UniProtKB/TrEMBL annotation:
Keywords: Membrane, Transmembrane, Transmembrane helix. The chain crosses the membrane at residues 299-320, 341-367, 387-409. The lineage of its organism: Eukaryota, Sar, Stramenopiles, Oomycota, Saprolegniomycetes. It comes from the Eukaryota. This is Uncharacterized protein.
């Protein structure tokens, strides 16, 4: 059994508040995880002080001169001996260059079709543009058809380079060169070829420092948002309870189980946009990660690259937030189901990792081949690639997957419900369920059954695991809470963010009765900010009174007060508690 440490915050009229330390620690860890996301990029990226200033020196009168001079410079620095000491995959951080060294076997008299299948197996082949692919295929074919005398020492080095751009701006220079084995003879069935590849990223130290400052600022914004939009609400909860207590005056102590602040942050439009912009500004680092994913020799680099590319989950959060505006505008709330942001992050790693591996190591990379030259002029199709079209396509694809999943789940549930004899939603206790249901279907009269839902069944994955570990679900009975989810279930129009599940940010409190002197029940408190008050829809409008109530918590019901007079039995109002309490049962 987990020990709960009692920390007395204050005491008024024999009331006190205690914190469940393990849940508070878990909440802090989750908050730290979100706050550190901008700086986690440096697990793979280089810090500004690790990289030398690199300026674009590849301006030449012709592509042939560029190819010859760039190949010469890189081959002179990254020699065979240099590669031998660095392994098959190495990131030269000081020069912002990714190095790859591989061995390829080219059969004698190989067909062009067979050559194509051989070349896509090379690490880094994902980035080969039209000109680079054609040149390497010609090199390989020439080597395949060569005689033993043509492979005599000194060996011939076959090399080709290409420009890599982003939105037309220089991003990197990629060079590949083949060195065939001089020991091969005309009788040899295949020829071994040493393949060397470099991806030289252009780095501007001013830009790198600016990006670091941007990430530090984003970290500060995230921390401030968590403090102001989530954790400060616990201060209100504690102060209200100590000052006024709950409506049940026999409860003299609360034990607070702190929730997860991440749903509040992940559903923030501007924060998710900032992360998307940060990802796009790191196109060179994404390229380095894709090169690492395309090889399996350096497993540490491979797994770091997978972790880095999982940052693309922000495409999903931003896309979900954008779609929320359209869903609310066109009243499509009933077409989707809310998704747990944490599960979206887990799913992102699950589907992003295989997707990246498959795209960088199999023939599926031909889909990207078709896009590399879309943003390049016809004259430069054989000389350069622009990664903008692929970046945009990946952004849209990864961003749209959660929406597609949400719509599919809703469609499946609808079919399942239609196949049942009697439609029902799991059991929900809520004192105004009949009113809310009549507001959803006006004119139908009272429903045939009261909907009930056990709050334990509405927990997200983190809560289920934590409560099972800490015994909260097992030791205490539920006495109330989850009313806003009742309203969401009965009419999704009341959900302010229909694609985001905010259950993880709920706060659970265990109550101690002065009569029994023991903790005997628990309550679920939710932030009523996740409610859409439907202020522009008179038929569904949830009123918000301005009476200075002295209750510890806010409440949602049809009770009259000095500033709210229910027009009929279906009128609902949010009665704000003391200090405009953001918590509601």
């Amino acid at each position: 059994m987990n020990k709960v440490h009692d920390v007395v915050v204050a005491e008024s009229h024999h009331r006190r508040v205690l914190w469940h330390k393990p849940m508070a620690l878990l909440s802090f860890v989750m908050a730290l995880n979100v706050a550190s996301m901008p700086l986690k990029a440096y697990l793979s990226e280089s810090f500004p002080w690790q990289v030398a200033q690199r300026t674009n020196w590849t301006v030449f009168p012709s592509f042939e001169e560029y190819n010859s001079e760039t190949s010469r410079i890189l081959q002179a620095y990254y020699t065979k001996e240099y590669f031998a000491h660095k392994g098959k995959f190495y990131l030269d951080r000081s020069n912002a260059t990714t190095l790859m060294h591989w061995s390829m076997s080219i059969p004698r008299n190989v067909s062009p079709a067979a050559l194509a299948s051989i070349l896509i197996q090379l690490p880094g082949a994902f980035f080969y543009g039209d000109g680079l692919r054609n040149a390497l295929a010609a090199f390989a074919l020439e080597i395949s058809l060569s005689s033993s005398s043509s492979l005599a020492k000194p060996p011939v080095v076959y090399s080709r380079c290409q420009h890599v751009r982003f939105v037309g701006l220089p991003l990197a220079e990629q060079c590949v060169w083949f060195v065939p084995d001089t020991a091969a003879t005309i009788e040899t069935a295949s020829i071994q070829v040493a393949v060397y590849q470099t991806m030289l990223n252009w780095q501007n130290k001013v830009f790198l420092w600016a990006k670091l400052v941007f990430r530090l600022g984003l970290t500060a914004v995230v921390c401030r948002a968590m403090a102001r939009q989530y954790y400060c609400h616990y201060i209100v909860l504690v102060a209200n309870f100590l000052a006024t207590g709950l409506r049940d005056k026999s409860i003299h102590a609360l034990e607070i189980y702190v929730g997860d602040p991440t749903p509040v942050i992940l559903s923030n439009t501007w924060i998710s946009l900032a992360f998307v912009v940060d990802f796009w500004l790191s196109a060179s680092a994404v390229g380095e990660s894709l090169l690492a994913i395309s090889q399996h020799e350096d497993l540490w680099a491979f797994h770091l690259a997978i972790l880095y590319t999982s940052r693309s989950v922000w495409f999903a959060y931003f896309f979900m937030r954008l779609c929320t505006y359209a869903i609310k505008k066109y009243r499509l709330e009933e077409s989707v189901v809310p998704l747990d942001p944490t599960m979206v992050a887990v799913a992102s790693i699950v589907y992003t990792a295989p997707l990246m591996v498959i795209n960088t190591t199999t023939a599926l990379m031909h889909m990207e081949y078709a896009l590399w030259s879309v943003a390049v002029t016809a004259e430069e199709r054989d000389e350069a690639i622009d990664v903008l079209p692929v970046t945009a396509a990946v952004t849209i694809m990864l961003g749209a997957l959660p929406l597609l999943f949400s719509v599919t789940v809703k469609w499946y549930r609808t079919l399942k419900v239609q196949g049942e004899h009697c439609r029902s939603i799991t059991e929900l206790t809520f004192d105004m369920t009949l009113v809310a249901q009549r507001r959803m279907h006006p004119g139908r009269g009272p429903p045939s059954a009261v909907l009930r839902q056990r709050t334990e069944d509405a927990l997200d994955l983190k809560q289920r695991l934590a409560f099972k570990a800490f015994g909260l679900k097992r030791r205490f009975s539920m006495s109330g809470g989850g009313s806003i989810y009742t309203l969401h279930a009965l009419n999704p129009a009341y959900n302010r963010m229909p694609l985001f599940n905010h259950r993880g940010s709920d706060c659970f409190v265990v109550c101690r009765s002065s009569k029994h002197h023991k903790y005997d029940c628990k309550m679920r408190l939710s932030l009523w900010r996740s409610l859409d008050l439907q202020e522009k829809n008179p038929a569904l409008c949830l009123h918000k009174c301005t009476t200075n109530h002295l209750d510890c918590l806010s409440r949602l019901d049809a009770t009259a007060c000095p500033t709210f007079k229910p027009a009929d039995s279906t009128s609902l109002c949010i009665h704000l508690g003391r200090q405009a309490s953001p918590w509601i049962l």
